[in-house]
Amino acid sequence: MGSTNSTLSKIPNVEELMRETGFSPAHIVRLYDRFESLDKEKTGHLRPEDFGAINRQDTVDFHSFVRILAHFRPAENNRPRDPSLPEPVNSRISKLKFAFQLYDLDKDGKISRAELLQVLRSMMEMQVTEEQLESIADRTIQEADLDRDDAISFEEFRKSLEKVNIDHKMSIRFLR
Amino acid sequence: MSGLWHGKILMLMVVLTVSRHSLAFQARNANPSNQPGTNASTGNGTENTITTLPIVTWKWHHTEGPYLVALWVLVSWICKLVFQLNPALTNVFPESGLLICIGWVLGGIIYGADKVQTFRLQPFTFFYYLLPPIVLDAGYSMPNKQFMGNLGAILVHAVIGTVWNAASLGLGLWGCWLGGAMGHLNTGLLQLLLFGSLIAAVDPVAVIAVFEEVHVNEVLYIIVFGESLLNDGVTVVLFNVFDAFVSLGGPAINAVEIIKGIISFFVVAFGGSLVGIAFGILISLLTRLTKKTPTIEPGFIFVFGYLSYLTAEFLSLSAILSCTFCGVFCQKYVNTNMSEKSVNTVRTTMKVFANGSETVIFVFLGISAIDPSIWVWNTGFILLTLLFIFVFRFMGVFVLTWILNQYRLVPLGLIEQLVMGYGGLRGAVAYGLVFLLDENKYKEKNLMISTTLLVVYFTVMLQGITMKPLVNWLKVKRATTDEAMLAEKIMNRTFDHMLVAIEDISGQIGHNYLWDKWHNFEEKWLFRILMNPTARKSRDYIFNIFHQLNLKDAMSYVQEGERRGSLAFVRNDSKADVDFNKQFDTDFTDMPDIMGPDHIPVPFVRDSVPSVSLNMHEQDQKMRESEDFNAHHLLQQHLYKGRKQRHTYSRKQPVVNRDEDEVQEIFQRTMRSRLESFKSAKMGVAQPKKITKHSKKDQTEKMSNGKPADDSKIHSYGDEDSAGDAAGAGIVNPAYMAEMDSNEPMPPMPQIPPWLAEAGEDSSNVAPSQRAQLRLPWTPTNLRRLAPLRLSTHSNDSFLLADSPATQEESKKHTILEQTYVDAQILW
User: Fold this and answer.
1) What pTM was estimated for this model as a whole?
2) Could you give the domains of chain B?
């Protein structure tokens, strides 16, 4: 696999990346190829135009690219967890945190009603009126909000999703 | 209980005498017929020899067919009823097993009476009348998302697994036969292969019957169940192919025939599915047009479903596949197109038919056994069959799952594989198929029948009984009986979107990508063609869930209210705090159907404890007292209307005083609702739709009243005393009371026009969040009933003006309010 090695050597800090995210070299190479194909201007960064989608940050470099994708690796349950190591990126908690960040736009640690509304608005079809959206948002918050502060904190978020199998919902097989 | 047994014995005697009667007739006419439905037009000749007008005649031979059918159905269902009365029994034995036992008993009685088994499960009846409802129900209530998600696993097991089972069983038996383990049998390789193919198939009826009581997790269930449905494609093909081969004879089989056999598999399987999908499309298209015929609307589903079954059968394709895919395809579109009532009707009726059919099948499976003419015992054959079925099933499952796990995101664990292997139940389909065999070609038909029956009994009863303990012992993950909360569903949907995006970014065509593509295709084409335009608008997934949840809450709310004696409690809507942390009463034994999490069971037929806990705050006891008050006030409300004449003479205080109670009451109600609308305005829920010139003034009043009212509301209901002073009104907001007290004892407070008071309830069924405001569907209507038709600001009654109290602001308010009230009275 000569090409693998040569590609790997092009990427700076690749060992650290692999250790942090848990991807294998083959994976990293694959992701790098994909990154390059997305990065049409060869700037080494991905801009929102490259994705054709709205992105929070302005650019994404390869490391961030890999890190974000690492959240979607299927979690492995069988390893004995070494408590001294930092939480692996693809564990359940990390995935949940990632999802939480998607909602929590202002990063205050809580999903407020407005933020939830915004997510809902983008997800739901056109025919739903604003009032209905707000009712849905209200109800969602009421269901999940245990300390009645009218916002969903990470703990409440996690609790409301404890029945959902996050590992399955947030994993892509090929990234194994 | 004993009474019931008495009744049953009586019923049996009736059945027996009736059947013996019929037999007597039949025997006399040399018309041996076991099948209900033969029309005894070969009546006896007594009609021609009457000598006088008979007042009543014994028309048995006319009604025999339908009568017996109805009677047998009734008997089967009564058996089921009897079992359900005894929950201890049903916890241990699977219902299907018990039904088979009852079948034995009944068969024994009939046999004992007639010395010949007159009733048995005819293949024709089974395949054309009893099986279609079950399959249709299976398809229609299939949790689509999981079905499609696990389709790969299902197909692998259904096709490859069944072929492996059939081949291994046939070859194994053949080997043992050659080795002499079975003694002397007049059979051959092909016949044994045929036997293997018909007994290898996992049976949907048995799987439903056993698994419905065990409640394993959805993935496991859907794989086994899906396999049992889809393997019909293979079974039909194998059966027909080997049957044809047996007819052709051994030497005539060459490569061409074998290749034709393989081709026929594809034709049968895909053809059957296509027929099903075609019918599904037809149903969806048709339901677009049935808005005007809501009564017949549900019927179309049944007719079309049945037609899909028959059409496939007619074309010698796989009927079960056709029926299944018809149901799977059409459920989404049809459910959106039809009115909610029709949807419920369809669902319920299908369950009735399916369950009823299943019951009858099992009872007759029992009865058919009590027939010595079919029993041939060959120890080797029977035991070997049982053994091979078991062993080869497990082998197949393990190997196939190992292969599948390489490609699955969620690998199937060993425990799940064990349950899958153990859940390979054989049932009535095998029995029906074996009966179809031609005796002349298959000399050992009776042996095969006996073996099939024994296998069926073994799997259904033994495996059925031990399934539950096994599942418990292995600690299999059980089905989540709880529905997801709205939050969960939203998150799930978000995750789906997220995964699509990630797959897209990473350039992989994955599962979610396909799902997204299908979704887009659906939106672009299918929805437009197959769904009503109006229905399409309400298609949104999350909105639908929200709607369903609201409906459910409304139902529970009403149930709770009725439970507490009267819906009057509901009037204290500001006190009732609906708590959405559901406390589920896990009393789901009356829900035999398959419910995946995607499939929201609407509990309209559930009569168990409501699932929403209503935390009533301090006023629980007070509420009960005030219920009487409320009833009283309710009456008073209605009495308000007819009070025109009072106004004409009474400009004086006393008469006005008499009105005050009611006025007070009305005022308080409307003020409260105004408050709520104000609160809802605060919370951003819909504004009142019709706002007139009153609005500004009233808004300011609301503003000023709002704040103190809000705070004091929490404490307010403790002071029943202060409320009690004022006007004897039970439910009262002392905040207002305080105000009024400060001015004069009983100022006339007229009605606030309710179109100010309401927060405009938009026409959708959406109930706003309970926290934001507590609004109940009928409240606005009630208020509207009180509403005067027209109100004006202008005060044209000088007398009242003169009478108005001192303070400026109050006077202004009172004047206006008074005026409006007065005008209202005029109008009435």
Assistant:
1) 0.64
2) 123-474 (1.20.1530), 486-558 (no CATH)
